[in-house]
Each structure stands twice: as C-alpha cells, then as structure tokens.
Amino acid sequence: MRKVALLTMALSAATLYACNNTPQEKAEKAMEQTEEKAMDAATDAEKASDKAANIDMEKTVYSNMAAANAAVAKIAMPALSNDKAKELASDLGKSIVDRINAKTNDDIVEAEKDIIEDRTDVEKAFLEKKISAQDKDHILKYGDDCLAAARGAV
C-alpha cells in the first residue's frame, strides 16, 4: 500500500510538472530568448556602426587638419624690414596653425582670440612706429593668405 501511495504521488508530481511546462510554454520561452538575443545583437551592431562612424569622422578631421597645415606651410613668410616685424608675422602664423590644430571648442575660441590679438599687436606696433606701413600690410596679408589657404584646403 505504501508503495502504491508513493508511486501515485510521484506520478501526480510528474504530471503536475509536465503540465506547467507544456510545449507551447517552452516555445514561448524559446521565442523570448531568441528575441532577447536578436535585440542584443542589434544593439551590438549599432554600437559597432557608431564606433566605425566615429573613426571615419576622426580620419576626416585629421586629414583636413593635415591638408590645412600643408596649405599654410606653402605660404611664404614675407620679406620684412626688422626683427619686430618678423616676430609679429611669426606669432600670427603660429596662432593660425594653433587654430587649425584646435581639437576642442575651448581651444578654438582661444586660438581665435590669439589671432585677433596678434593682428591688433601688428596695428599697435605700426602706430608705435616699431614697424613700417609696408611691414604692417605684408604681415596682415600673410595672415589673410594663411587663413584663405587653410579654408581652401578643407
């Protein structure tokens, strides 16, 4: 009798367990898992695509920087009459190159300010008679030519 009761209980438990895991429920769970895997794969693919796009963007930015630097390097420094004029032209050229190579908005703003300041220094040196009118014109034209070359290269 005891064996029959235990056997009956075991069969009842097995039947109850089997009823809770019907083929339909198993299929639904498998489908949910498949959907989750598909969503994960889609997310991974999107991340990979974004990474590739960022790499392409970086390549473009650095390529443009290199082209602008090369274009500016081709602009000859003007013949100037004194060391002060040469120093002012050099400072302006360096500020333009810094602007080309700026990577952050703060760097861009700072470089733009430096270019304006350098151009102001040229005007100031002329007014103080440290450089000639011809030197002033040559330096400012040199700056304009460098900026035009950099813009044209991009």
Automatic annotation (TrEMBL):
Residues 1-18 form the signal peptide. Keywords: Coiled coil, Signal. Residues 24-51 form a coiled coil. This is Lipoprotein. It comes from Sphingobacterium anhuiense.
